[in-house]
Amino acid sequence: MIASEETFRQLMIKAQGGDKLCYSSLLVECDKWLRRYYARKINPSAIDDLVQETLISVHRKRASYDPARAFLPWLAAIGRYRWIDSLRKIYRHEHDHLYEEMVADPQDEDVTAKVSLERLLGMIPQKQAEVISLVKIEGLSIIEAAAKTGQSESLVKVNIHRGLKKMSALIESE
Amino acid sequence: MSISANSLIEGLVEELEPVRTLKPKNGLAIVGGLTLFALIAVAATLGVRNNLMIGMAHEMFFLRSGVLLMLGTATAITVVNMARPGVGKLNRGWIWALITAALFPLTAAIMSAIAMPPVEALRPMEGLKCLAVSGIAALAIGTGLTLWLRQGAPTSPERAGWLIGLASGALGAAAYNIHCPFNDIYYVGLWFTIPVILSAVVGRLLVPHLIRW
């Protein structure tokens, strides 16, 4: 069970005031939320690092949260920013199976749908989203992605580059 | 949760100290203060345009002051709001201010197409002075705004770079405007546009490296 939006908000307000107990609970809840958020959107071998990098960003940038606003859109913006950054760094994965259990148990479905990574991928042209999913998320090589999509190898590279660039400009879009 | 995630969380909790939440109005105050400082510096070193000194002013002075200040303010508001990210939080007011400001170079271009202005109307030497002074003022304003934004979490460093350049270029030109004695559309369309564009390009090139997190 993941905390509600209001619980997240209250914990963060206390954390900004220096309450370590609330902060510990907040980070544990953020860890759970982020694991589900990133599920199927990054290779499982990279998920621990990505979640931890996002938690560090949450810590370093906690002053940028506005207590008058909802918490999850703020966390999602930071999550998307770290996700795109992480996709840029990944060049080749081993073929791992995606963790099926991580896609179960969705929480706050309305909020999550609006801030989801799926929605962000849906905002860029389909050809770009397709090769990003194949190469950066599923871990195919450029050659394999080219064969699967019918795009040339150089086009796959260009589409990945353009797609990531476009997504990074759209991070705060619903 | 993994052992490493647990120990990371313990470490972060150990480091926790109270923080003051970022207030966009503080960023705006820095921009306003630096613009005012630039304006006073221009007035003190180069002087205030003559017709203002005698209590009169050309309508062009008000038009370009208003448009530059509006562009600078709308863009600066967008920049300071970028410090506090959130999905669904878009600020696009600056686009309208930019379109309005584009009327000056557009009008100058159309008028030039109708009748080519004499070179004297473009006043290259004075124009370069306008460019230099506006550029120095923009650098000061842009530096202040960039340093403030570094505390925040802008999710689009490239866009932030463009916008910081645009805001500081427009406000830097607005500061020089208090001295600039020329009123014709050719001069304003050229020499008040170049500093804004150049500043935006410099912002795009330099700022993202400084604010990435």
What does this protein structure show overall?
The complex is a heterodimer of chains A (174) and B (213). By secondary structure, chain A is mainly α. Chain A has one domain. Chain A is 67% helix and 0% strand. In chain A, helix 3 packs across helix 4, helix 7 packs antiparallel against helix 8 and helix 8 crosses helix 9. The longest helix of chain A is centred in the N-terminal third of the chain and has 19 residues. About 8% of the residues of chain A have low confidence. The model of chain B has no long low-confidence stretch (mean pLDDT 91). The longest helix of chain B is centred in the middle third of the chain and has 26 residues. With 213 residues, chain B is mainly α. Chain B has 11 helices and no strands. At the A-B interface, helix 2, helix 3 and helix 4 of A face helix 1 of B.
Question: Helices, strands, pairings?
Answer:
The complex is a heterodimer of chains A (174) and B (213).
Chain A: H1 5-16, H2 20-38, H3 44-60, H4 72-89, H5 109-115, H6 117-122, H7 126-137, H8 142-149, H9 153-169
Chain B: H1 3-15, H2 24-45, H3 50-53, H4 59-82, H5 93-101, H6 103-114, H7 119-122, H8 124-149, H9 157-177, H10 185-191, H11 194-211
Helix pairs in contact in B: 2-4, 2-8, 2-9, 4-5, 4-9, 6-10, 8-9, 8-11, 9-11
TL;DR of this structure?
Chain A has 174 residues and is mostly helical.
